[in-house]
Each structure stands twice: as C-alpha cells, then as structure tokens.
Amino acid sequence: MTRKRPDRTARRADERAARKLVRDRERLAGLERGGSAARPIEVGTAAVIEVRTGAMKCPQCGGSYDLGEHRAEHGLRVVAVTCRVCHVSRQIWWRIVPAGPN
Ligand SMILES: [Zn+2]
User: Fold this and answer.
1) Is this model's pTM higher than 0.90 or not?
2) Residue ranges of the domains in the chain?
3) Could you tell me the distance, in angstroms and rounded to a whole number, from the CA of residue 11 to the centre of ligand 1?
C-alpha cells in the first residue's frame, strides 16, 4: 500500500510559494521609486532624505527601517536601511533637484 504524503507535499508547495513571494516583492521593491539608481526619488534638499527614509515601510513586511550609512554615489544619495522586523537590508536612492528659478 502506497502511503501518500499530501501534508508534506502541500507544505513544500507552500514554502516554494513563500519564497517566490519574497522574490517577487524584492523585484517590485527594486522597481519602485527609490529602489534603484535608475529610479531615484527626487527631493528639493538633502535635509528631508533621512526623515522621508525613516517614514518608509519595508515592502516585504510593512516594518519600519533602521537607517544606516548615507553616502553620495554617481551624483545621487544612497541611504542603506535595514528592516527592523524582517531584517532585510536594502538601499534607497535619492536625487537632489533644487527647486527655484534657474
Ligand atoms: Zn521587513
């Protein structure tokens, strides 16, 4: 008599689905504004970057971020962040576009 393991099979399928969901969310996070150097968030002044980064939520779990290193790269600003809940690390990209008359 063949013993089937439907529970185990279902669990594996769930795990696969969960991993795929994580990957999909990370890909979406990369496509969002600020998720990559190609899509920086535009701000008028560097002064608001940390406040706005601190107000962002982790796309994986909705947790808030611990702010890490803040650096300039390719004329952009990059803030390294780590989710306080799921501990995913990512980078938020910003471009400073001064407002006002030229
Ligand atoms: Zn998270």
Assistant:
1) no
2) 7-96
3) 23
